[in-house]
Design goal:
Two copies of one chain form a homodimer.
Chain A lengths: L5 E13 L2 E20 L5 E7 L13 H12 L7 E6 L10 H16 L10 H12 L4 H9 L2 E6 L4 E5 L5 E8 L5 H6 L4 E3 H19 L3 H7 L6 H4 L6 H10 L4 E4 L6 E6 L1 H17 L4 E7 L6 E3 L1
Parallel strand pairs in A: 3-4
Antiparallel strand pairs in A: 1-2, 1-12, 2-4, 2-5, 5-6, 7-10, 7-11, 9-10
Helix pairs in contact in A: 1-2, 1-3, 2-3, 2-4, 3-4, 6-7, 9-10
EC number (chains A, B): 2.7.1.39
Family (chains A, B): Belongs to the GHMP kinase family. Homoserine kinase subfamily.
Catalytic activity (chains A, B): L-homoserine + ATP = O-phospho-L-homoserine + ADP + H(+)
Chain lengths: ~325, ~325
C-alpha cells in the first residue's frame, strides 16, 4: 500500500434481540450503515479529522468517540499507538434507532485501522476491540450488534462475558423488513422497563422458541421459524414505548410476515419474511400503520447480509 | 399377521432436562427399558393379563395403567375400543429414577397396539397418545421423555402445548454415562423446589447455553457442547436432593466428561462424553462417588440411541 492510500469501509446496521433471541441473537442487513475512511499520517497517533452526518453530536477526541476507542484499543493491543492515522467518520444511520448505530461505528473503526496497518488480525479477532468501542458508547458489553456487524449473517451469542459467538447460516430466501419510526427511546428507559425477575414459565417458553428458531434457521424450515418468533420477555414490556406496536405487528403478520418484533431496544421494528416480494409487502404494511399515526419512518428491505463490514472502493 | 401372533416391543429409558435443556430437551439411551407384549384376543376390549418387575405396584386395570391408558387413547381415537387385545407389561427399569420409566411404558403401550392392529399411524402420530398415558401417571404434559423414547435420538420440544417437537441429529461419537443412585426423590418435591420466578439474567444465560448446545450438537462441535452444558435454573436447586452431587460432578468432569447434570427430576445423573472409552471412565468415576457414601447405584453406558421404541423378536 502506498503511504498516501486511503481505506474506506462500510459497516452495516444490525437487528439485535431477534424476538425470542433477546440478548443472544443478531443479524446484519444491507443498509443503512456507517462509512469510515482512514489514511496514514505523518503526525503520530490517531486523529479524527472529520465527522459528517452526526449533527455535530459526536466528539472528535478519539478517546471519547466510539470508532476512536475501538481503533485505539486495537492499536494499543498491537503496541502501535504512535502510528500516525487520520480517520473520517460518515454517520449514515440515526442514533438511538435500535439498529446498532454505535456498533457500526465501532466495528468500522477497528476494521478500517486493521486494514490500513496490513491486516495483522482476522475479522473474528477484532471482536473484543469493536466491543470495547461499543461499550464506550453504550456502557454495556453486548455482542449481539457488534457480532453480526463484523461477521455478517446471523450471529448467536452463547456468552458475552466469554465472547463465545457462533454464526448460523441464514436460509437463502430469508428477508427482513425493518422500519425505523422517528421517535426517541432512551436505552436506559428500555433497559429499566425490563424486570429483574421473570416467571420460570416464560423462561421455558423463550428457551423453547429460541431453540426452535435456531433449528428452523439451520433446517431452512420457514414454518418452524414462524412458530418460534415470539418474545415473551422483552417485547411485552417494551412495546409500550412504540406507538401502535401491536397494530403494526398485526399488519405485518396479516401481510405474510413470518414474525415481527422490536429491533434492539427499539424504536425500530423488524419483520422476517420468506422472499423479497413478501418483505416489500410487509414493509409497506408496517410503514402504513406508522404514517397513519402520523409518525414519520424509514423502511429498509434487505436480505440477511452475509458479509458484515467490508472495504468499499 | 396370523390371529395368534404376538408383538413384543422394547421402549428405552430417556434422559430429559438435559442441563440447559431443562424442560425442552431429551435423549434416548440403549438400556434399561420396558418391554410390552400384545396379542389378539377373542374377548373384546383391552386386558392387561400380566405385569412383571413392578413389585405388584402397577394396576392391571387398563384405565389406571400408564401403558393401558396410552393404548386405550389410541384405540378410542381409531374407533376400535372393542378390539380384543391382551397386553403383558415387563417393567425392566425402576420407578421414580428420573429415566422416564412411565414414558417408556406409555410409549411401548401405544406402539405395540398400533403394530398389532396393522400400523394405521406413524410413530410420530403416536405422540399424543403416549403423552396421554404418561400424563395419567405423572400429571404433567411433557414430551421430553416421551418424544425421544418414541422417536429416538435427541429430541427438542419447542412447545408441549402445541406438541411441536423436532429431532436433532446426534454427533456420531456422543456417548452418555447414566448413573441411578438408589435413593427416592418424589417428583412433587423436585417440582416444588423450583421457584416460580427466576432472575432475568439466569434466563438469558440458560438461553445462551441452550442455543450453544443445539449448535454444538448439529455442528458436532464437542468444545461448544461442553461450554454449553450448564443448567443455572433447575440443577442448583435440585442438586440438594442428591447426596454428594457436586462431588460426583467434579469427578465426572475430572475424568473427561463434556458435561454433567441431573437426569429428569433425578435422582439419576448423566454425563455426556466423546467416545465410549471416555464414557466408561466417567461412569466409573461417578459410580465410585456414590459407592463411597455408601449409596448403591446402577451404571448405564450408552451411545445416544437413534431408534427409540422398536419391535424385538
Amino acid at each position: 500500500m502506498s503511504a498516501n492510500q486511503e481505506i474506506r469501509v462500510f459497516a452495516p446496521a444490525t437487528v439485535a434481540n431477534v424476538a425470542c433471541g433477546y440478548d443472544v441473537l443478531g443479524f446484519a442487513i444491507d443498509s443503512p450503515g456507517d462509512e469510515i475512511v482512514v489514511r496514514n499520517s505523518n503526525k503520530p497517533g490517531l486523529q479524527i479529522t472529520k465527522i459528517t452526518g452526526d449533527d455535530g453530536k459526536l466528539p472528535k477526541d478519539p478517546t471519547k468517540n466510539t470508532a476512536g476507542v475501538a481503533a485505539l484499543d486495537l492499536l494499543k493491543h498491537l503496541g502501535m499507538l504512535d502510528r500516525g492515522i487520520e480517520m473520517e467518520i460518515h454517520k449514515k444511520m440515526p442514533f438511538g434507532s435500535g439498529l446498532g448505530s454505535s456498533s457500526a461505528s465501532a466495528v468500522a473503526g477497528a476494521f478500517a485501522v486493521n486494514k490500513l496497518i496490513g491486516e495483522p488480525l482476522s475479522k473474528r479477532q477484532l471482536l473484543p476491540f469493536a466491543m470495547a468501542g461499543e461499550a464506550s458508547a453504550d456502557g454495556a458489553w453486548h455482542a449481539d450488534n457488534v457480532g453480526p456487524c463484523l461477521l455478517g449473517g446471523i450471529v448467536f451469542i452463547r456468552s458475552n462475558e466469554e465472547l463465545d459467538i457462533a454464526q448460523i447460516p441464514a436460509p437463502k430466501n430469508l428477508w427482513a423488513a425493518v422500519v425505523h419510526p422517528d421517535i426517541e427511546i432512551l436505552t436506559k428507559v428500555a433497559r429499566e422497563i425490563l424486570p429483574k425477575e421473570i416467571p420460570l414459565e416464560n423462561a421455558t417458553q423463550q428457551i423453547g422458541n429460541l431453540g426452535g428458531l435456531i433449528l428452523g434457521l439451520i433446517q431452512e424450515d420457514y414454518g418452524l421459524i414462524s412458530r418460534s418468533i415470539h418474545d415473551v420477555i422483552a417485547e411485552p414490556r417494551r412495546q409500550k414505548l412504540i406507538p401502535d406496536f401491536y397494530k403494526a405487528k398485526r399488519a405485518a403478520l396479516s401481510a405474510g410476515a413470518l414474525g415481527f418484533s422490536i429491533s434492539g431496544a427499539g424504536p425500530s421494528v423488524f419483520a422476517l419474511c420468506e422472499g423479497e416480494e413478501s418483505a416489500r409487502k410487509v414493509g409497506a404494511a408496517i410503514e402504513k400503520v406508522f404514517k397513519e399515526i402520523p409518525v414519520n419512518c424509514q423502511l429498509h428491505i434487505s436480505k440477511i447480509n452475509p458479509h458484515g463490514v467490508h472495504v468499499v472502493s
